[in-house]
Write a structure and sequence with these properties.
Elements lengths: L1 H16 L6 H8 L3 H7 L3 H22 L6 H14 L16 H8 L2 H26 L7 H25 L8 H14 L9
């Protein structure tokens, strides 16, 4: 419970005020706990940011594992995003609803390479878990590359969403809706073939 309060308070502050502008003291105040309690759970602001990201990604993988076998890849991802919204994750917003890009986006684009590296490694572990899910669920033989390709498509749709929103904040493009709208359009294009763009979702 305390860990979750810290993560949620920190994520809200990071999004509103920025990563560098948020202190451990600010996080403690927002979470309604003593500053020392944060250090009993986390050793730095970066570890809080990355723990929030890892929890989000674990939730994505766990939800995808629960999806029925008759769903296509795009249906599976879109249903997973909807389930995350129902569970209270706050990532389904348009750029116009955000004061600034999420710190994960900033670090991936131009920030601390250790944070970007952690995110990449987390995604590689998630892709390995997704390969196991796809291979078991869809009964692919051990030599099939399709489970790995599907897992890579899930990652690619996330990256396409992140970079689309980076472009939105840079003023070089307009994101077509919320993060989940962009993710849905991206995974649909990847699942059905990028040479045949999908109808808007």
């Amino acid at each position: 419970m305390t860990r979750r309060k810290i993560l949620d308070a920190a994520n809200d502050l990071f999004e509103r005020n920025g990563f560098d502008e948020t202190s451990i003291k600010d996080i403690a105040a927002a979470a309604g706990i003593a500053k020392r309690t944060i250090y009993l759970n986390f050793d730095s602001k970066a570890s809080i940011l990355l723990a929030y990201f890892d929890d989000w990604l674990e939730d994505v993988v766990a939800e995808m594992a629960r999806r029925p076998a008759d769903e296509t890849l795009d249906e599976m991802v879109i249903a997973t995003l909807a389930a995350q919204t129902r569970r209270g994750w706050t990532d389904d917003r348009a750029a116009s609803e955000m004061d600034r890009p999420h710190p994960i986006l900033s670090f991936l684009a131009e920030g601390n390479p250790m944070i970007a590296g952690h995110v990449t490694q987390s995604w590689i572990r998630a892709q390995d878990a997704l390969v196991d899910i796809f291979r078991t669920r869809d009964r692919y033989p051990p030599d099939s590359v399709i489970p790995r390709t599907k897992a890579a498509a899930v990652y690619a749709s996330w990256m396409a969403t992140v970079l689309t929103f980076r472009d939105q904040f840079a003023g070089t493009s307009v994101a077509p809706g919320s993060t989940h709208d962009v993710g849905a359009a991206s995974i649909t294009a990847l699942a059905r073939g990028v040479d045949s763009p999908p109808e808007p979702v």
